[in-house]
Amino acid sequence: MGGNCQILLINVILYTKLFGDCFVKRNYGVQFLGIGSALPSKVVKNADLEKLFDTNDEWIYSRTGIRERRVVDKDESGLSLALEASKQALENSKLNPEDIDLIIVCTATPDMLYPSLSCMLQGELGASKAVSFDLSAACSGFIFGLVTASQYIYSGAFKNVLVVGVDVHSRFLDWSERSVSILFGDGAGAMVLSSCDVNNDELLGFVIKSESDKKLDLTLTNNNVHFADLSKNIEANFVKMNGKAIYQFAVDVVPSVVNELLEKTSMKSFDVDYFVPHQANKRIIDMAAKKLGFEESKVVSNIDKVGNTSAASIPLAIHHAILNKQIKFPCTMVLVGFGAGLTWGSALVKLNLKSV
Ligand code: UT7
Fold it and tell me: Is the whole-model pTM more than 0.85?
């Protein structure tokens, strides 16, 4: 009897390990309804940076793949970019702002610490029925946002969710120093997710991860006046990065997290139509695509025109590729992000947008 019980228990454990997901009965799937994006109007070319510090177009392009980036002017902000991208995504989805139940704004550079960018966006959009919050996962923000949104949809808590990735790093760069400021640009990308029949789920799988950046290889401080030290000068808040360490982190985690996702979803890279990596450095993108076996024609990239737009980079790259008629629907895409935290993650999605 005891032996039988033991065998039964082992079987249950094995079965749960192998088919665990099957026990979680879901009633809803996630469908991607629409997309939008926004860039500031001011273009900063590599040649413009030559006037600020000792650098040149050849160095920047060969080391990063970046030719130009956009930066906000005085009348632009994270909010104005997020608003423009969200309006496009809603129009593309054929939804009204009042149809939105939840707004998640993924950003590490909000206009203010509070109110949150998402609450400000909710007001500007007129999304009167929504609840809103910001999500901070740096350049992995959009992947984390999609995954978070999907869980609310799967559970039946919300039907229509607006996910926005937006960052304005230009306000947090030391423009007298060449090592970091060449990389970043400002921008926003937005997608609308909606609930659908569970059998039509378009989020085929995801893996998200984080660990503490104990060596502080990528930081943006939040220095401010300290009551205990009122006379001290406040150090400016600038992005600081150990470029080589973050480069190594990226070349390690990007292939490994995508491989984990492909294994989890029983897919091979040649089954996937497009590869959309976070646009941080063209050398990282090329190396990851090669390691994973994605041929060049499947790789979605716009880093030459926009630089590293952090949480906006994945939806921005997808939207630009759609507008440039590089994407054929229906299609499958592997998205992968990595960044400060440290955070990283990947998602396999089906995309069949009707009109863009
Ligand atoms: O989304 C956030 C995640 N961030 C990333 O993924 C960034 C990952 N890291 C990188 O992309 C690269 O490390 C960088 C592009 C930031 C730097 O490239 P690198 O090949 O690692 O260059 P380096 O820092 O090792 O510098 C090489 C040389 C140095 O000169 P010496 O010491 O060899 O004489 C630098 O002083 O290049 C020099 N250098 C520059 N020269 C011209 C560094 N920055 C510049 C510059 N222009 N902007």
Answer: yes
